[in-house]
């Protein structure tokens, strides 16, 4: 025991002697590090970025028709059931969702961003430029991520009575409403009114189709840019 005690004393002394030969610390030491956490700057989503619509607007119902075979091509065109839109367009749609909620309605999304390669498949199946954009001449605004196909559902999730089914290529889908019931006409007009008020434009041939009026902000995008 005594040897160990002597050893400890010798070690302490040598440490002191070694320390004496070194430079002294400055008298004003920096303050001790405090537990301050600085979060990294939040990554700002740009209006041109794509967002997952269901995550961005949780109240919307997403049922992408082209993820099923229940569409005019009779083929399942999409391999992903997620709806995407540009953030700038989704911001407008969020306002639409809030406004229709005042009447107890929610938005049901049938199509949003459509990858350009899908447009070719669609054109092969239905080469009529009144209803499908010819990809050899240019792409649909859906491929820019700033167009949307949608309808309204009530608080029970029941779709409102509209002039026609989605993608029904008949005159009923047309916005002249001459061959539809007053209720169907009123419902379609209401959807159009709110969409236009929040920054979309409608088209004459399809009551369900709307394009962001700021469409020039968005170029055709391939699906490898999706989040
Ligand atoms: Zn459309």
Question: In a few lines, what is going on in this structure?
Answer:
This protein has 227 residues and is of the alpha+beta class. It has five helices and seven strands, in the order H-E-H-E-E-H-E-H-E-H-E-E.
CATH class categorisation: Alpha Beta
Assign the structural class, choosing from mainly alpha, mainly beta, alpha/beta, alpha+beta, or little secondary structure.
Answer: alpha+beta
Number of domains: 1
Low-pLDDT ranges: 9-24
Q: At the third CATH level, what is the topology name?
A: Muramoyl-pentapeptide Carboxypeptidase, domain 2
Report the span from N to C terminus: 69 Å
Q: Helix count, per DSSP?
A: 5
**What is the H/E order?**
HEHEEHEHEHEE
Named once each, the bound ligands are:
zinc ion
Radius of gyration from the alpha-carbon trace, in angstroms? 31 Å
- Count of DSSP E strands? 7
- Strand residues, percent: 5-15%
Helix content: 25-40%
- Sequence of strands across the biggest β-sheet: 2-4-5-7-6
Shape: globular
Largest sheet: 5 strands, mixed
């Amino acid at each position: 025991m005594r040897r160990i005690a002597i050893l400890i004393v010798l070690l302490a002394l040598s440490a002191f002697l070694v320390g004496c030969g070194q430079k002294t610390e400055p008298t004003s030491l920096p303050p001790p590090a405090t537990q301050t956490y600085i979060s990294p700057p939040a990554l700002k989503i740009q209006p041109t970025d794509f967002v997952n619509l269901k995550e961005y607007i949780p109240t919307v119902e997403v049922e992408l028709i082209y993820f099923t075979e229940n569409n005019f091509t009779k083929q399942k065109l999409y391999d992903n059931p997620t709806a995407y839109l540009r953030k700038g367009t989704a911001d407008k749609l969020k306002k639409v969702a809030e406004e229709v909620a005042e009447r107890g309605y929610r938005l049901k999304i049938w199509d949003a961003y459509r990858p350009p390669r899908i447009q070719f498949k669609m054109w092969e199946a239905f080469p009529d430029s009144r209803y499908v954009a010819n990809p050899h001449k240019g792409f649909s605004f859906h491929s820019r991520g700033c167009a949307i196909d949608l309808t309204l559902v009530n608080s029970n999730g029941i779709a409102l009575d509209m002039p026609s089914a989605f993608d029904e290529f008949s005159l009923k889908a047309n916005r002249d409403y001459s061959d539809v019931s007053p209720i169907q006409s009123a419902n379609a007009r209401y959807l159009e009114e709110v969409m236009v008020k929040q920054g979309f434009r409608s088209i004459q041939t399809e009551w369900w189709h709307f394009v962001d009026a700021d469409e020039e902000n968005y170029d055709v995008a391939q699906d490898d840019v999706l989040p």
